[in-house]
From TrEMBL:
Transmembrane segments: none
UniProt keyword ATP-binding, yes or no: yes
Name this polypeptide is given: Multidrug ABC transporter ATP-binding protein
Residues covered by the ABC transporter domain: 6-235
MF annotations from Gene Ontology: ATP binding
Length: 310
């Protein structure tokens, strides 16, 4: 396996007054992945990103970006990072082209109109290149933020709440943009309050709470091991109570006795357990007209994780 593009070891941040924002964070980000960092407000997401991007000095620990120490070799490390903040702070009367080109110059990169054009086309901004920022919609301004971050050809792109405050349709457009960036070889790290965003896009999930990294896991593994599953049998005839033969099962009656609900952990032998259950239901003389299953969403898993560690 190739070396991680971001390698964080023992990272702490203690602010004046003694507040511990980060508590011994260890984290590796793989090249070319989309990694989602989830956590409630004040959990340490922004502080962690700010340290990795060289905007905040750590109290202890080490951060390597593509093998370059963020403190000892700041210029090389920072040049590999693009950061997309939540708000557009550029001069409102600048054009899209000038704004993005200026960002490239800030990193000491020579002018490269071909690259700027490529970025603007990739983000569907080419037709707006001569427009002043003040004339753009909120969604277009968000795309300009990404274009600015990509102007100096970074290998890693941090997206801080990339779709906060935008409508659902635009959010899905932005997801497509991010997927396209990943396909071009850029590593994506996003923080988000929209857990569906992480569920839709990320390959791995990190959960941070009170300055501690609670877990880092592949999304599918996380949902399989921590998710709860639910099987509902819609009965032909309602039951007033559970038959004695099924009392040992984790079953509950719902819908005024018209439904039997079976809940089990994602880590259980789901198929075998369900097959056994259906056999016992049949043996008890219960017939059903329909059944359906559902699995916990990432949001439910996240809420339960945070609760467990409160």
């Amino acid at each position: 396996m190739s070396a991680p593009i971001i390698d964080v070891k023992g990272l702490t941040k203690v602010y004046n007054g003694g507040f511990e924002a980060l508590k011994g964070i260890d984290l590796e980000i793989r090249r070319g992945e989309i990694f989602a960092l989830l956590g409630p407000n004040g959990a340490g997401k922004t502080t962690l990103i700010s340290v990795i991007c060289g905007l905040v000095n750590p109290s202890s620990g080490r951060v390597l970006v593509d093998g370059h120490d963020i403190l000892d070799d700041f210029r090389a490390a920072r040049s590999r990072i693009g950061l997309v903040p939540q708000e557009l702070t550029s001069e409102a009367f600048s054009t899209v082209w000038d704004t993005v080109s200026f960002s490239r110059g800030l990193f000491g990169k020579p002018k490269d109109p071909a690259h700027i054009e490529k970025v603007l086309r990739q983000l569907s901004l080419w037709e707006k290149r001569k427009n002043r920022l003040i004339t753009l919609s909120g969604g277009m301004k968000r795309r300009v933020l990404i274009a600015k971050a990509l102007a100096h050809e970074p290998q890693v792109l941090f997206l801080d709440e990339p779709t906060a405050g935008v409508d659902v349709e635009l959010r899905r457009d932005m997801w497509e943009v991010v997927r396209g960036l990943r396909q071009s070889g850029v590593t994506i790290i996003l923080t988000t309050h929209y857990i569906e965003e992480a569920e839709e896009m990320a390959e791995r999930i990190g959960v941070i709470r009170a300055g501690e990294l609670v877990l880092v896991e592949d999304k599918q593994t996380l949902m399989a091991s921590l998710g709860r599953k639910e099987l509902t049998l819609h009965l032909r005839e309602p039951l007033s109570q559970l038959p004695e033969a099924l009392a040992h099962r984790s079953l509950t009656l719902a819908d005024d006795g018209h439904a039997l609900v079976y809940r089990y952990d994602g880590a259980d032998d789901g198929e075998g357990a369900i097959a056994d259950l259906l056999g016992e239901v049949d043996a008890a003389g219960i017939t059903f007209k329909d059944l359906h299953t559902r699995q916990s969403s990432l949001e439910e898993i996240f809420v339960n994780l945070v609760k467990e560690r409160t």
